[in-house]
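yo

u said u wanted the structure for the complex thing, so here. seqs first:
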Amino acid sequence: MTAHQPLRARLSPAPGSARLPAARALTAAAGATLAAGGFVHAQLYLDGYRYLHVVGMLFLVQAAASFGLAVLLLAGTFLRPPALVHVAAAGTALGALAGFAASRTVGVFGFTEHGLQPAPQALVSIVAEAATVLALLAAAYVTVRRARAGTSGPPSLP
Amino acid sequence: MKTSFPWRRAGAAAAAAAVLAVSGLTLAACSSPAHPAASGTAIAIAITPGSGQPSLAGMPGSTATDPVTQPSAPMASMSMPSSAGAQAPAGTPVSADRVAIKNFAFAPAAITVKAGTTVTWTNQDSDAHTVTSQNNAGPLNSQALNTGQSFSYTFTTPGTYHYLCTIHPFMTATVTVTR
Amino acid sequence: MTNPMTRRQFARHTGWFGAAVVLSVAGGEVVSHIADTRDSITAAATADTNTLRFVQVSDSHIGFTGPANTDVTASFTQAVDQVNSLGFRPDFVLHTGDLTHLSAPGQFDQVKQMMSGLRTDRVFTVPGEHDSVDDHGRAYRRAFAQATGGDGWYSFDTHGVHFIALVNTLSLEKLGHLGTEQIDFVRRDVAGLSSDTPIVVFSHIPLFAMYPQWGWSTDDALQVLNLLKRFSSVTALNGHVHQLFSRVEGNVTFHSATTTAYPLPGPGRAPAPTPQVLPARQLHTALGIRTVTYRQGTTALAITDQELA
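structre next:
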């Protein structure tokens, strides 16, 4: 390898090469769980939640953003999306969780529900969104740790 | 170490992702609405009264074809009374105490008057209110007071009179009448 | 750590961002299209007698005068016109109470006359607390509820849906109240129905605890809701609160309708439920009517709320 390779490794690891299999797997998993959460929101939207004031539209936005970002995360198994995609995906999942919490407590634009209604979709979606956030955090942690290990000295065997 | 962009792998990944996306959306489409019931079954489109009720409630609209009309009730088409009647028995009226109805509350909420006093309630609020004894167990029974209308009552018997507004029953107050 | 982005990095970021936007929009379009298809199937059943469509109006408050609405009669006339121009003839119209503002005979006369202009076969009503001021609802019943038992509750069936009209605005203490006689009526009324019969309950005051501090709740509603627990689809429609609000509790979906007269503040948003004064051009956005559609074979009723034009 050429002499300037370690420098590049410090600033921006070459796409695909320095990514850990763990990071890729976690990103793909996050994509799958995000898609699952979006799918649940889409199904509820079609089933009748679209009639709710404002909340109906929020469901559509959540489902659409979830599908779009999930596709990109799944592509991230092979490619390396910018961190912003991960952040946006985590944000979409967190937003859905926050909306769920709000609907059980203070209400979202006048809409409230109780417990884990509707069952089983509510539980499925909470689990999927939480898993998305955790997977993305884990992927970020793994990547940062690897990058730090790379900058503290010559790349060594893990 | 790769020095050129991995086009083929990127292309394959994008294609796979697109296929996944499309199949996901198709699955969403396939959770299709329940198909309409077989049109062979006769659905009752007439409106029928519930069990145990001899006739249908409600009133006919403009397209009703049912010749049965509502029994005509004597309808006094008088205009709204401009002020509620006051119950003032004979006797020298003592200085009237006033209670204002404002912001969905009686102010003051508790007053003490001597027997023989006439108390006047004036509605200064934007909604209608009443002055009605609680549990219908008392003498206060105003009609609905619109904004600006008043109601008076002369208390002759000592005692404590709890009253409320029947339209907004969270509005409560008291008149204590002493000898 | 912060380097200015190279052109290549910028292109890369733009590419990914663009892909995200395109994919999300495409996904949203597909889901929305599916929803529209479903809605148009429902709407296309205009000639389909399997579809039930009715309209709910509420809180006309004929007789109200005040800055919040200086002409409630005109507003209600507009609501009636809007119902008549929906493009289909509703199977019936519901008025969920506070037809008049002061229970005056002239006001009952007027609102009854106005509602007889609705292009429908039947108009059903329940009284609001403004309709039963200090006469326990006698004037209201004389005008609207001659054929009913008790204090004006009743039920009816159409298109396989069972409707129950409840009166919870008499004998008010702090909250809406149904009373044991009415609860017994409901028990007998639903006794013979199969559990997959869709049920629609309508009342003036909400049957759920929307905001008890302002009386926006019914103290013994739970007894009726327990009687309806076995049914797979229960929808509760109410008025009284002058704003749109929905809630799901167990097997019951509650929908509060808005008024045709004047808006009230949201729960807890003001010290008291005072008529709110809006700029003249904005008033119509707070008023409205509601169309409810039910297609045989589906579980949920489709609720469409529209503002007064």
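The helical segments of chain B are 7-30. The CA atoms of residues 4 and 103 of chain B lie 75 Å apart.
cya
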